[in-house]
Amino acid sequence: MEDRGFDLESRLESLQSQDLKRTLSPVDRVAERGYFAAPSGGELPVLEGSEALVFASNNYLGLTADERIEEAVTQAAATVGTGAGASRLVTGDTLVHRDLERQLAETKDTERALVFSSGYAANVGTIAALEPDVIFSDEHNHASIIDGCRLAAADTVVYDHCDLASLRIALEEQATRGGEDESWLIVTDSIFSMDGTVAPLTGIADLADEYGAWVMVDEAHATGLYADGGGVVQAEGLADRIDVQLGTLSKALASQGGYIAGNEALIEYLVNEARSFVFSTGLTPPAAAAASEALHVARHDDVRERLWDNVAHLRDGLEAMGFAITGDSQILPVRVGNRQDALMLADGLRERNVVAPAIRPPTVPEGTSRIRVTPTAAHSRDDIVTCLEAFQAAGEEVGLL
Ligand SMILES: Cc1ncc(COP(=O)(O)O)c(C=O)c1O
């Protein structure tokens, strides 16, 4: 009989031959340091003997091992339950979810907020539910935005990264093409995870006003880090000009899940029409409680100052060595250029027990390979010095310094 199945071995070989095959390397805990294991496929991993410093996570506020959050999780599991048991619309809507949504709405200066089981689900569910006719999307937007655009089956116009002139041309061309009754959505990350760049949100909001479009901003890498625990939207005082604010609970908020913040009509509409909300089990109560407590800590503790202090020291130190760092955020992409050099630099760091991955094509364009370095609030000054020393030694070894 003819084989109508899938030749996965040859697909994997093809990934391997192009240097694109990825592997899983477990670690003993999620914190600023840990013991890693080499990839072991389906076998039980064996942890390495020496501890590594982690400069590669999105645990920006270092809250994944915070006792206050652990306590909130334990309490939610004991009093509410370990899982939501059903979608929010059936029996999975609990007071823990409501408390988190109230806090998110307050932080994001909106009427309401709604949590999803992941940031990915929030992006695809929301963009598809809005059913825009045309989407204007930054060329470096996250994969979950791109997948949302595909699911929405909208005409998607990609504009140059953070380039207002390019966005204006795209809007103008669409306007001259007619389409009087079209609905338009401009969508952008606020902080771009591979570039560390910050979107020009005020300019985007101005263009949206001029052309009558809605704006959706993905604050996955900004939530918790800026003004009063908000994102770039709050730092720039734009909450009343951004129609849809999205974020994740899985980065600075040390949990799992995603959220949308906006006005009453938007949230009520998504409760009814976002398929990734309606047809998916509610966020687990412990995850909601962890995010609530983390947001409280982000707003009222000094973790944000500690993060930005570490960012400034690491950036200054790397620049003083002669490395070029792009962007203007807590994400420090150390530009190397050549993909082999980036891989050798990452290996050199790893040999010195510093984990910071090489980002190379196809994730970033050819010739722009980099090491993505992300300090957290939990790193000590000694950790920052160790990281800098590792960069100096590995950089010299590779011939970059
Ligand atoms: C910009 C951006 N948006 C959305 C997501 C998806 O969030 P989550 O990890 O909660 O699914 C991510 C995370 O990787 C992200 O970087």
TrEMBL record:
Co-factor requirement: pyridoxal 5'-phosphate
Name of the protein: 8-amino-7-oxononanoate synthase
Species for this entry: Salinadaptatus halalkaliphilus
GO BP term, example: biotin biosynthetic process
Catalytic activity: 6-carboxyhexanoyl-[ACP] + L-alanine + H(+) = (8S)-8-amino-7-oxononanoate + holo-[ACP] + CO2
EC number: 2.3.1.47
Top-level enzyme category: transferase
Keywords, ordered alphabetically: Biotin biosynthesis, Pyridoxal phosphate, Transferase
Molecular function GO terms recorded: 8-amino-7-oxononanoate synthase activity; pyridoxal phosphate binding
